[in-house]
Amino acid sequence: MTTLLERLRTHLAAARATLAREQAEAAQELQAARTALARESERVALLRARLLGADHLAPGAETPGALHQLLTAYADAGLRRATLQASVESWAHRQTVLAEQVRTLAGLEALLDGQAPGGDEAALLADWLVAQERERERLASWLHDHVAQPLHHLVLQAGLAERCWSDDPARAAVELAAVPALAERLLAAVRRVIFELRPMSLADLGLVPTLERYIQLRATEEHLVTRLQVQGRPRRLPAATELALFRIVGAALDNVRDHAGTREARLTVRFGEAALELAVADSGPGCDLRLVEVAGRGTGLRQMRLRAAQIGGRIAFESAPGQGMVVRLVLPWRAVPPPGV
Fold this sequence. Notes:
Blueprint: H1 4-51, H2 64-112, H3 120-164, H4 169-197, H5 201-204, H6 207-222, E1 225-232, H7 239-259, E2 264-271, E3 275-282, H8 289-294, H9 299-310, E4 314-319, E5 325-332
Parallel strand pairs: 1-2
Antiparallel strand pairs: 2-3, 3-5, 4-5
Helix pairs in contact: 1-2, 2-7, 3-4, 3-9, 6-7, 7-9
């Protein structure tokens, strides 16, 4: 009779094979998109040079009809380039997500090696599943409040302006005048959720510049002021590792926002000789961590602990009533694979 452990291993093996196929497809599609983007970028540059009278063309060499065709070609090429750029970013995002899934899968397989789920292993597996579901719930709630509701308002406002147009043009003009500002707020919200899901600057610039941008966003939108201090010489890490560190910082700042009773935090990132050390501290009232765990209110803490374990790090939570809280992560360099792995 097939045991639960055997069924779990079978499912994990199938998931690993699927992820391997998807990683190969993502790498192939990303390379194709980058090649097409480079080619289209060259075309845009050539068309732009012609429009500016460069590329050895004498001023006035283009007839009105030819100039119109040139402008149309330039606009079309620009649109194709923008589409290809979005495709490159999408496939790069897909690669990073798959890499994170592979590391998560490896962590789950490690739990099953040598013994059936039980004790701490079963609790860790259950916590991981709960954390994934809570993350989906948080994202769904955020999208509803910051995207779906403003979008509904935008549709209603545009419809009201349309109905008023024939009978009350002045009222219609007022309603329409408010649409651009609402659309800008909606666009900002969409950009924020995209940044939360996968900040593209991680791939281009790395962890520290992305954290700088992230705390600026939160200061603007949530009035959560975070002072960042970087010690040592920054270095690039594998994409999945940088994403996990970004998520841990985000969860720690969420904890400050929701529970610390303060709008100020300190973020320290230290690139030491033996390890990367990361700390998020606040000067709030603090808490008794044992009571938090017993009461089942430490979901965010468990999520941070799981992410740290997935990348080979150790995380500690230091707090006491009246003494604020510190989230402290230590990631030994020996646990970090070379970038690109």
